[in-house]
Amino acid sequence: ALLVELFTSLLQHPLRNQAPAPQHTPGSIPDRDPPSHPLGLVPHQIRGYVSTFQNMNIRGQSYDCCSACSPKVLDAYRTDGWGFVKRALQEKDYVAELSGLAEVQRRAEEMAANVDWEEEDDDLVEDGEAELL
């Protein structure tokens, strides 16, 4: 039901898929954007919490490696259309590789592997010879 409401609000918004994310100002609750839009806000991200059954609208910046809306993914969809969708469904890592997200993950794993988790000055602290600052 939430998806249908969101999709309908997006389709009916004067700016359609260019509708801005709601702006939260302290002390106010945004309910319309623009004020004349009868279907209310068009949030860009909704985070749900099962433990409290609450949703939160998140406003964030676009990410150039997003697997949904990065320029590379959008260009591939515009170019190949249904062929892009079929390939994304058939090839497990296609979208992650295309968007650049797979490379980001590889770099993060490489950096995590290079982290030295051992503390070098353990014996000084144990012997009571550490300097207090």
Automatic annotation (TrEMBL):
Disordered: annotated segments: 15-38
Gene3D superfamilies in alphabetical order: NAD(P)-binding Rossmann-like Domain (3.40.50.720)
Highest taxon, organism lineage: Eukaryota
Name under which the protein is recorded: Uncharacterized protein
